[in-house]
Give the backbone structure.
Amino acid sequence: MSLFKRIFSSEKKETLDKGLEKSKDSFFSKLSKAVAGKSKVDDDVLDNLEEVLVTSDVGVETTLKIIERIEERVAKDKYLGTSELNVILREEIANLLAENNSGEETEFVVPGNKKPYVLMVVGVNGVGKTTTIGKLAYQFKKSGKKVVLGAADTFRAAAIDQLQIWADRVDIPIVKQQMGSDPASVAFDTLKSAVTMDADVVIIDTAGRLHNKVNLMNELSKVKRVMQKVIPDAPHDVLLVLDGSTGQNAFEQAKQFTKATEVTSLAVTKLDGTAKGGVVIGISDQFKIPVRYIGVGEGIEDLQVFNKFEFVDSFFK
């Protein structure tokens, strides 16, 4: 793992370590109870470990995969001491995350062959969607990109106002209409403006309602169709924002949204305020959709590009 410690700046790594502190402390206090009085990894330890992983919000299916891998290691090595369990867990979780596309990037980048690169952001209200958009806009601008925001969550005046605050804070243009306007119309205007301005990145906010999946599906499909009148292959990325502090509820939201629309990447927020950081492992494994960003603090710099090696390193530090 030492190889991966050089990927992030030490400041970013410290933020990640601090952001995952509650999750890590909770996990290891449960783990130490699970192996108390045991010197060897036996069936009892594995049963206890299964409970630790499930109650740490890793999810049942992902937990069973991890347990199966550890059972294979026990069978192969004949004797496995509980003192080695931490190292083996760390290795197997890293291997599991390595099997999908999550967490290869280390910087905020967009493909150079798409201009403007159109990012449509979806997610229920309250998960940190607007904040994630603002922090993303800040990072892209910081890397020299010209960014435009589109306030297509027109069902709540607060959503438009919040996005305006972020646009002012980051000092980037925003395209908006009155509350109750057609979201597709806002998206169309945003893309037209972005093309005129020769923008590099467009971030479109959308309404976060899940009470009626059919309505949501129809609305997002319409937004996409109308955007494609301006840029034929837009959106280039559909980013689903999930609140990590809700644990298993984040799984449920991911299920609902992936049924309602094609989701191509994930952001998991609010990991600093919760002991449920294990949810990132389960979501990354179960949905086979790359976790691209994680929120590990309230500061403007505290949205990080998810890197699985750094995440596992911080979780098991």
About this structure: The chain has two domains: 9-98, 117-307. Confidence is low (pLDDT under 50) at residues 1-6.
